[in-house]
Amino acid sequence: MILFNNISQIVLIILSVGLLISTLEYLKKVQIFSTKGLLSWNVMQLKWTKENQSPLLKPFFKLFSVPGLAMLFLIRCLLITGLLFFPLQSTVGWVLISLLGLSLLLASLVTHYGSDGSDQMSMLIIITLILCNMPALASNKLRDIGLWFIALQACLSYAVAGIAKLVSAEWRSGTAIKDVFSTKTYGSKKATLFLQKYPAANLFLCWNVIIMETIFPLCLFLPWPFALIFLVWGFIFHFFTAVIMGLNAFFWAFMATYPAIYFVNHQISWNLF
Amino acid sequence: MLKLTPTAIYELVITVILACWFLATILCQFKETGVSWFIRYKIDLFNLIPLWTFFAPHPGKRDYHLLFRDKTDDSYTEWHEMDITEERTFWSWLWNPEKRDKKILSDVVQSLVSSIPSYREKTGNLNLLMFSTPYIIVLHAVSHYKKHTENCYRQFMLAESAGYQKETTPSLILLSVFHQI
């Protein structure tokens, strides 16, 4: 039975929603892996033909065709569904998540181009959960260490993104968001018109993102009501990047880290305050 | 004293692995260093070390376009654009499969653009760029797209535009030679 008082399980459930959507999206676009597609294995295998890489990977090469990858994505959907019924700490649950992790690792060999930070965060969380929940060997302490790792990676991601924006003249001058929103790739016509109508909003949004991302790691140390401000900000931030920029997978991958942040905040708070 | 049970050994090993992973992630946030290059290109086979500098320091301000034309005998066809930069739908906040094509093209173009200066510096021209993976990816995709006749020659063009900012004119990034397809 799934227990919602288990933080690792909550992390997995939130992440599973995003992974299911992302996998179904890949299934819809599976033709990009065809011999005529952008990620055709005929071309993508060039990345793996160097020196000592190919012997290890050869057994998997047949998989990277349209039928092979469609099957892999279908199996992944079944694994994710199965994880709703078997707890992470059960043997069956651990086997399911391990197979899920394996499918993510395999697909990463062919999706070198086109994957983004949400894919990396998802992979990072899944591998951590696999390592830290191994039946018979994983202790409660190790599960806590896994949650610490996920929370620290999440905070690092925000802080690095914030600092990289802080050193950027385009972000400091308040033009970056307007410029990104004006692209068809990551923007929207309505958002562009809004920012053209209210130029002050550009500066406000840029500095809002710079400041909140840079100081985000404070949410690990602050008393919970103050830490919650950062998580609410993060929720709104990711929701709007999904709505305006179409970055839907980021929402689920980063929301999945918030229970881990909650866990670490409470462990630190109990010691500090 | 610490008792070396299988659980304790496993705990120690995994903790060390996670600590190394976190340290490698920190080191790899500095793109230009030798350590970062070594970890990224020599160790990180599965792309497990993230770069967390989303949209910074230089945010993507351009849309990329991939166009092609054919040469048959002595005539050229019109330029055709591959349908990649489609506008998003209302449901894209939840369901957005189209983002993959855009991201692939964006990654490939950025990889091409970033490698152009080094090719120019090393050889004085861009001939060797044709052997790079991003170039071959683009050429491969273009070669198979709406191919009408056998044995024709196809040229592709990578261009960029500023999306909804209509006052900015599109500009050329790369014009290929004609390739027999």
TrEMBL record, chain A:
Organism this protein belongs to: Pedobacter soli
Domain HTTM-like: 4-266
Membrane topology per record: Multi-pass membrane protein
Signal peptide coordinates: none
Keywords: Membrane, Transmembrane, Transmembrane helix
UniProt KW Nucleotide-binding keyword: no
InterPro entries: HTTM-like
Record field: transmembrane: 6-27, 60-86, 92-110, 145-164, 230-254
Cell compartment(s), UniProt: Endomembrane system
Descriptive protein name: HTTM-like domain-containing protein
SMART domains recorded: HTTM (SM00752)
TrEMBL record, chain B:
Membrane-crossing residue ranges in chain numbering: 12-30
Keyword list, A-Z: Membrane, Transmembrane, Transmembrane helix
Name of the protein in its database record: Uncharacterized protein
Organism expressing this protein natively: Pedobacter soli
